[in-house]
Prior knowledge:
With 359 residues, this protein is α/β, with parallel strands linked by helices. 42% of the residues lie in helices and 16% in strands. Helix 1 crosses helix 7, helix 4 (97-118) runs parallel beside helix 5 (161-180) and helix 8 crosses helix 10 (323-336).
Amino acid sequence: MYTYLVTGGAGFIGSNYIHYMLDKYGDDIRIINVDVLTYAGNPENLSDIEQLPNYKFVRADITDKEAISKLFAENDIDRVVHFAAESHVDRSIKNPEVFVQTNVLGTAVMLNCARAAWEQPDGSYPADKRFLHVSTDEVYGSLEEDGGYFYETTPYAPHSPYSASKASSDMLVKAYIDTYHFPANITNCSNNYGPYQFPEKLIPLIINNALHGKKLPVYGDGKNVRDWLYVMDHAKAIDMVQEKGRLGETYNVGGHNEKQNIEIIRIILDVLKEQLPDDDPRKAHISEDLITYVEDRKGHDRRYAIAPDKIKAEIGWEPETMFEEGIRKTIQWYFENTAWMENVTSGEYRNYYEEMYKA
Ligand code: NAD
Ligand code: TYD
C-alpha cells in the first residue's frame, strides 16, 4: 500500500487529482495532503472525502523545513506529488516575491526533506520512492502565432515572475536528479480547466461574470492562444508518469486544443445560453455585449502549445476529454455549485478583483 504525500492538494488541480486517485485506487492507497491554505486553497474542495480513514489533511507551509521533515519522519512516504505553488500570472506581476518564496524555496525544502528521508548510505534509493514535480508549459516562454510546439527539448525562456519561479523550481529538480540521482519526474502541462478552479483564471472568471451580468475582461486583442486540457486528463497523466515514466525524465502534457481567448469566451457564452433554462433569470444577462477589451497583461505570452508526443509514445497517455464535452461538464459543475463560488468570491478575492479590474 503506497503512501502519497500530496502538496497543495486543496487547490484546483491537487483536489481533482486526489479525487481521481481515490476513485481509482480506493483504500489501496493512503493520501496525506499538506497545504497551508492560501486564498487558493479550499478544504471544501475535499469535504466529500475528508472522513475517509486513508486520507489525512495537514495544514503546513512547504517552506517550513521542520514541519515537512516531521511528515517524512512520521510517515513512510512512497510517492510525493508536488502541486503546491503560487499559480496566477497576474498576481506574480503585482507581487513576485511570494512566488520565489513558495515556488522556489518551497520546492527546495520538499526535495531536501524527501532526499533526507529516502537516500540510502550508498547513495541509492529504494525502488518505490518517487517524486513528481508538477510544472507548467509556461517555462518554455511564448510561441509564434503561426506555428511550432513546445517539446521537452525546447529551451527554457520564461517571461513572467510566475513562469520564472516555476522554471527555477524545475531546474532544482533537474539538479537533484543529476547530482544525487534523485528519483524524480517533471511534468510540464498546458492550461487546465474544470471543477474547483479559482475564478481569477480565465474560464471560471468568465463563467462567473457572465452569470452575474458583469463585464467579461479581454486582455489586449483577445487573440492570445492557450492549449486547454480538462483537469481530470491531467490527473491521469500525473499518475501514469509516476507509475510508468522513466525516472529522471520530463514529460509534456497537453490537449492539442489550442484556442484564442476570445474564442473561449464565445464558446462559454454559447454553452451558457444553451444550458440555462429559459425561465432562469440569469439567462437575460448572457450576451456578447458584456465582452470588454481591457489593457493588455504586461509581458503577455502570445501562444502556448504542447506536443505531447513523448508521453503518448512512452506511456500511452492521450487527452480523452474533448473541449466541447469538458467545457459543458465544467459549466454544469459551476451551475450546481453556486455556494462554492459565493464562498470563494467573498473576502480576499473581492479585494483582489476590485484592485485588478478597478471594478
Ligand atoms: P492553485 O493556486 O489552485 O492551488 C495551489 C495550492 O497550493 C493551494 O491549495 C494553496 O493553498 C497551496 N499552497 C500555496 N502556497 C503554499 C505553501 N507555501 N505551502 C503549502 N501549500 C501552499 O493552483 P493549481 O492551478 O491547482 O496548480 C497546481 C500546480 O500545477 C502548480 O504547481 C501549478 O504551477 C501547476 N500547473 C497549473 C496549471 C493550471 O492551468 N492551473 C497548468 C500547469 C501546471
Ligand atoms: P489565465 O487563466 O490567467 O492563465 P495563464 O495566464 O496562466 O495562461 O489566462 C488565460 C489567458 O486569458 C491569458 O492569455 C490571459 C487571458 N485573460 C483575459 O483575457 N482576461 C482575464 O480576465 C484573465 C484572467 C485572463
